[in-house]
Design a protein that fits this description.
This protein is an alpha+beta fold. The protein has helices spanning 80-83, 221-249, 254-272; strands at residues 2-5, 8-11, 42-44, 47-50, 53-56, 61-63, 78-79, 86-93, 104-111, 117-124, 131-137, 148-156, 159-162, 167-169, 179-182, 184-185. The strands form four sheets. Strands 9, 10, 12, 13, 14 and 16 form a six-stranded antiparallel β-sheet that branches.
Length: 273
Amino acid sequence: MVQVVGEDVVVVGSQRLPNPGPVPIAFNVPLNADLFDPTATAQLWAIVVDGNDAWVTPEGVAVATNGAPSDGIVVRLTFRPDALEGQVTGFTVGAGSDLSGEAVSMTWVLNATTLAIVGFDSRLVAGADPIPFAVPFSVTNLDEGAAYVAESFVYDGAATWTTVDGTPVITQGNPISDVTVTVSAITPFPSASPAAATPTPAPTASVAPVPPPDSGGGFNILWLLLALIVIGVVVAIIILMRRNQEEESEPTGDDAGSGTGQHGGGESGGAGG
C-alpha cells in the first residue's frame, strides 16, 4: 500500500503471501503507523505470480483514507499479458547483495507532475543484485507531454531502501528498457524517545570540612590530627591528677596556700590553651 506524501511515494504497508491457495485470496495489510498519513490518499496495488504467469492491478485501489474503505476490499487483477500495452524494464541497485530470502522489491512508474502511478511491479529479490523489474503500463493512461519516472522500494525485515530521485522513463526521449533505479537505505524511526539525562546536583559549600569516612584503603591525615588531640587531652588529665596528688601530700599553711594559688593559675592557663 502506498501514499503520495509531498512529492514522495511512500510505502506504508505491505504483505507477502507465499502459496496463498485458491481464489479469492484473503489479505490483511498491516500499516506502518510512523509513515501512514490519514489525510493523504492511499492506494493498494497487488500482483500474483504463478511460475511464469502473473496477474496485476492495472490501477491502484483507493483504501483507508478520505472515505475509502479499510475492510471488505476487493482487488481485481488482470492477466499481465492482457494488460501489457507497454512496460519499463531494468534493474534496481543500491540494496546490496546480502539480503535474505524474504526480501521483496517493488518498482512503480508515476507521472512526475501529478504523482499518479501508472504501473507497478513487485517480486522476491531471491539473492539478485542488481534486482530486475518489469513494470507494465497502459498506453492509454499516458500523457505524451508529461514526464514519467521509475522508483523502487526494497524491504528485508526491518531494513528498507527507497529511491530518492526517480529515473526518467518512457516520454521525452527517455528509455523504457535497461533502466537503472537507485535506492538508498532509510534511517529507521526511533522506537522510543531517549531518556532525559538526570542533571548532576551542584556541589554545596560547607562551613567546615568534614572528614570523609575511612574506607581502609589509605592514610587519612584528619584522623591523625584527631588522635593527637585525644592524646593531648589524656596527657593533660594525667598531669592534673599528679599535681592534685602532690598537693594533697604537702603540709597545710601559708606556703601551701601560696602553692595552691600557683597551681590554680596553672590549671586555668591549661584550660585556656
